[in-house]
Write a sequence for this structure.
């Protein structure tokens, strides 16, 4: 489905692409995803990829990432600084892509969009995983695109999230640099 997406085609050739990762609290999944993309994009000359993250809730504004998220990305060799913030409508103007971690947050982001141009920027992060790219988030299989929330779980859950995120980020980078 992504190969023929008209909006994604408009990003081809842009010198810089701004991407926002979004989850619920902005302390577990989205900062981990931002850490992965930030680090993997460092060596890419074009397009320059700028990454941020946010949460649809205001639960953790101003806090750092969850200690197990930080431990997970550091163990994988990534460096990243994070301060939680809430998703804002301004992201539609400032970001080229808004990538949701789950269907609930995707719906909240889409509900905040005021027009089709803003909605066109919203995807599930895992839509970029080559093994999942044919799944439509609105179909019955859309649940397969979700990154499960590891909050309250063990380090194994965070490492599972990391694996999902890395596959999706690799697919995202391949799509943006083709």
């Amino acid at each position: 489905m992504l190969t023929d997406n008209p909006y994604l085609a408009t990003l081809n050739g842009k010198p810089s692409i701004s991407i926002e990762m979004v989850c619920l609290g902005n302390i577990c999944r989205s900062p981990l995803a931002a850490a992965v993309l930030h680090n993997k994009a460092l060596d890419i000359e074009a397009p320059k990829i700028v990454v941020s993250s946010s949460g649809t809730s205001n639960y953790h504004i101003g806090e750092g990432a969850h200690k197990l998220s930080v431990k997970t990305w550091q163990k994988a060799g990534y460096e990243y600084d994070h301060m939680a913030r809430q998703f804002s409508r301004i992201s539609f103007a400032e970001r080229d892509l808004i990538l949701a971690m789950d269907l609930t947050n995707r719906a909240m982001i889409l509900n905040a969009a005021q027009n089709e141009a803003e909605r066109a920027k919203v995807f599930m992060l895992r839509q970029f995983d080559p093994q999942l790219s044919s799944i439509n988030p609105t179909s019955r299989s859309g649940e397969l695109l979700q990154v499960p929330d590891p909050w309250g779980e063990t380090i194994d859950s965070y490492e599972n999230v990391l694996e999902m995120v890395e596959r999706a980020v690799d697919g995202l980078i391949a799509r943006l640099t083709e």
The two ends are 16 Å apart (CA to CA). The first strand starts at residue 16 and ends at 23.
